[in-house]
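Figure 2 data, in text form.
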Amino acid sequence: MQESVMKAWWDSSHMAGANAAYVEQLYEAYLEDPQSVSDSWRQVFDSLPKVDGVELESNHSTIREQFKKLAALGPAARMSSTPASNSAAVSDERQVKVLQLINAYRFRGHQHANLDPLGLWKQPRVRDLELSHHNLSEDDFDSIFNVGSYAIGKDTMSLGELFKSLNRTYCGSIGAEYMHITDTEQKRWLQQRIESVQSKPEVAKEEKLALLKGLTAADGMEKYLGAKFTGAKRFSLEGGDALIPMLKGLITEAGVVGTKEVVIGMAHRGRLNVLVNVLGKNPSVLFDEFSGKHDNTLGSGDVKYHAGFSSDFATPGGNVHLALAFNPSHLEIVNPVVMGSVRARMDRRSNDSHKVLPITLHGDSAIAGQGVVQETFNMSQTRGFAVGGTVRIVINNQVGFTTSKLEDTRSTQYCTDIAKMVQAPIFHVNSDDPEAVQFVTKLALDYRNKFKRDVVIDLVCYRRHGHNEADEPNATQPLMYQKIQKHPVPRQLYADQLIAEGVIKEQDAQKLIDDYRAALDHGACVVDEWRPMTEHSVDWTPYIGHDWDAPYDGKVSVDKLKELGERITSYPEGVKLQSRVNKLYQDRKAMMTGEKKLDWGMAETLAYATIVDIGNDIRMTGQDSGRGTFFHRHAVLHNQTDGSTFIPLQHVREGQGDIEIYDSVLSEEAVMAFEYGFATAEPSCLTIWEAQFGDFANGAQVVFDQFLSSGEAKWGRLCGLTVLLPHGYEGQGPEHSSARLERFLQLCADHNWQVCVPSTPAQVFNMLRRQVIRPMRKPLIVMSPKSLLRHPLATSTLEELAEGVFHNVIGEIDDLNPSEVKRVVMCSGKVYYDLLDQRRKNEQTDVAIIRLEQLYPFPQEECAKIVANYSHVKDWVWCQEEPQNQGAWYSSQHHFWQAIPEGAHLTYAGREASASPAVGYVSVHNQQQKALVEDALTIK
């Protein structure tokens, strides 16, 4: 009985013979990297008995290849490859150990690499890299072994030669981490590139001179600024000087292989040096900025180490357009902005990632500490946000602001460990070895271009001064800075090396210093590769200099709307829709024949159809943007038969504008920053980011604060991004009610953006069209609805859509006699329908209701025309659903006072002030909603 039970279990087990090939594949992966298999399989393999004391088997495929090669050598050669002093069994065991040794260096050699220029790192002992760990010793150095896949260019080596080669390759100035990658092709490619030159290829004399020139420029710039503007903040690059020749080399190599645009994102460390020595900003302009001079046409402006810049850079493959993104002091937030800009530029270049290269620069503490880094890594391979890989460079100063203790800055060995989540290769490199830096830079670019994936260079350096030049770093890092004060600068170290090699003489090195300083004194561009910009970027000229009242023709004929409506409600016969979606599409067909009035979803979709029909592109992203969080949009149809998708809006007409709709990763901050970057690089596209609930937009608050609301004032950057934030009180609790309207209104100034609360399908139709057709680009913040998506009163006719006008203010719609009105209620959004419904139930004729559809810029003139009908009314009320300390009441109250007649008084009807945006109980919500409506309609 027991045997039959065991047999039945074995026959059904995943360990059964039928699965042998699969299990062997898993075991092969486990032998190469135990972390590459699931926990359950790792436990199985860990529990396997050890044979002959061997702790870990060698990869089976490697052994098979070894024996194939030995068989091909012939008997004599096989004998010579086996040490005579050992038996065949012992030889085989040692051969396995040698292959394990090679694998150990590939996995963990970086932990013994010479990476720290200061020599302060205390790397833990790695027994895997010791001969004794593999039952080998120096006594075996003369023995010849097969080296398997070690890409040195020979099949066999003596153990002594191999051991030296492994240390040169993996434990020199470069520490390569790539064995966490599961793709075999990528690993083999990296091994070939690294091992074939032992991480140290030959460097031509002209390349050495270029490296020295770059280091001289980096050092010279900082010394010049330090002497000329003593104590001024410049966030010096000193210690990380290799960044300058590194970036120039990276751009040059990119140009050689066909790159036409490079977009760079970086925080403040070394930014001024990059501006002058890479992008070619005129030093005299920078010096004027240090002296406090500025251009009065640039709005509020920003500090010099946040400034962006654009130029062209000459390479052997042609000019490359460079764009350094503007960014605030929020460190890593610029990275998704860069990627969004790159995506827009790629779209203009037929989605060719070779043509556009993103480079992002990070601080060591920032890349490990800022959550947006994880978000951008997570986005990097998704359909809607992929940019063909980013070259990420970490300026690793080994210290954050004042925190240098590893246990205080992160919980991982390296600051770059976050990159392993996307299996990006990581190249740690000692910045005092510029030739090693050059090697990994080219390797990183080639990897990115070949595999279209992110790659990370950890430039291990130091920070010669404090966080800024006014800080005293010895106060918090005494041992580190005692070492730094004695440590020669990178330029000096490399100059001494080239002098010792006979490449240059001492006077040659001094001449480079003198020539660079003279160029700075002259105030001219110091970058030989700088070229005047040509037409590399999109033309913003048509969108400059327009105000809110810029004329535009938004009309569209009813016949055209019917034609487009037919196309966007059609889909191939093979597409089977889910029953509710099918009902929705049948209703939309009825709307086009006049059988039904248009609801929100149909009007919105028609707006998109008219936009692509005139040739403009649309890009929409959000966590539920294809369907719509509240099941109203269904712009992306899902075939219930095979799971395929169909987007009717992509089939409006031949040659139409493109429309892309992506359900985004579960992120607000990085996704919205990406869309901001996209919108700043593509003005003709209607770029939309939609929050799942408007409340969740606060996860992207830094983007609203530092980019969207103030980017034009600080940096002169125009942007037409549209943000849809579902907003409305339906009793769904604190995190599903308020899009925090008050925060956006508080940020309103200088006509920086539009804040709208549309209340009808016709309004959303014309609002979206206005955003594209009007020759002006400003961000649009929309408090979009939830319950109004299917509200019986929130409907429109085709004629109302065709009118082509977005009404900033809507007056009374019922047939009231203005002279009989005693109270006027002003409001925005969904509460209007609650007020209207209750007033009709009350059969009141003495209370008028005015809807404000655009709260900023406040439409004073349009409002005045409607208010004129009630100039006799002294009792005016602002009614809102939000608590008194939220919503529009405090932020826009001054506008309301200006709008009402002189001598009138204004009161508030709404929820009391609250720390929470909404209550969590439906019964309490209903009581509050009923009370605020009654309060608004009851004449005291």
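Caption note: The chain has five domains: 2-46, 60-195, 212-531, 558-802, 809-937.
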